[in-house]
Design goal:
Helix content: over 70%
Distance between the termini: 28 Å
Strand content: under 5%
Number of helices: 14
Radius of gyration: 20 Å
Structural class: mainly alpha
Order of helices and strands: HHHHHHHHHHHHHH
Shape: globular
Length: about 250
């Protein structure tokens, strides 16, 4: 176990023991330093670590203010010479954890005006916030080739599924289900944007392509179920977890 992982586990332990200041101190260190000591923690840093930080904030309001402070600092950096896709990813992830997606929308509007090329690079990260804000024209402008985007997403899902099949890892079902859920959410957002700007035919083509480009029949069935019954994938994940516990 590396240093960053140990600090994150220590933060969780401190929260459970009601040592909230210690937990916040470790969360701050992890967010600022984890990648320098363990680059492989990039995904954890913007997912599980932020989730745990929000758990802490529910009991210790200062933790929420500290996270908002990091967001505000990084937003200022973004608009004052330190702009990058990586920094925008950090900000949007924090806003998502805080439930403040509107702040991501507001930032993206400014980036789109000041740095249009960077806005194009960050558009996929901003899309959930644009949809939440119902800024359909801006969202559509940054979806110049919806079918190409869906094809790109399907290629990655196909490759991931085939890699899991080759590995023979029987414990990979939760990861695969999570990937299917993310894929269907992304496709659904793209189709929604198109529908809201009266491009219903293209929206239908996007949904059809999202299924047709999947090579595995089982994968197509899983995606179709999620399209037909939103939440079916989460139900499957919970069922798998219960089965593993028994």
């Amino acid at each position: 176990m590396g240093q960053a992982h140990e600090v994150l586990e220590r933060a969780r332990k401190a929260r459970l023991e009601n040592r909230f200041e210690d937990a916040l101190r470790d969360h701050l260190w992890f967010h600022e330093n984890a990648l320098a000591v363990e680059p492989g923690m990039a995904g954890v840093r913007l997912s599980f670590a932020l989730r745990d930080w929000i758990y802490l904030a529910e009991q210790f309001p200062l933790a929420r203010r500290a996270l908002q402070g990091l967001r505000d600092r990084d937003t200022a950096r973004m608009l004052n010479g330190a702009a990058s896709r990586e920094l925008f990813r950090d900000i949007s992830a924090i806003n998502g954890a805080l439930g403040e997606e509107r702040a991501t929308h507001e930032l993206f509007v400014q980036v789109d005006i000041q740095m249009p090329q960077l806005a194009q690079q960050c558009a996929d990260l901003a899309l959930p916030a644009l949809v939440a804000a119902e800024d359909w024209p801006l969202a559509r402008r940054h979806l110049p080739e919806p079918l190409e985007r869906v094809s790109h997403l399907a290629t990655h899902l196909n490759a991931y599924t085939e890699q899991l099949a080759k590995s023979g890892n029987t414990s990979s079902a939760p990861a695969l289900l999570a990937t299917v859920l993310n894929y269907t959410k992304e496709v659904r957002m793209i189709a929604l944007v198109l529908a809201r700007v009266d491009e219903d035919e293209l929206a239908a083509q996007v949904t059809t392509a999202a299924l047709d480009e999947l090579r595995s029949p089982a994968l197509r069935d899983a995606v179709q179920r999620e399209f037909d019954t939103p939440g079916a994938t989460i139900a499957a994940m919970l069922a798998h977890a219960r089965q593993e516990q028994n």
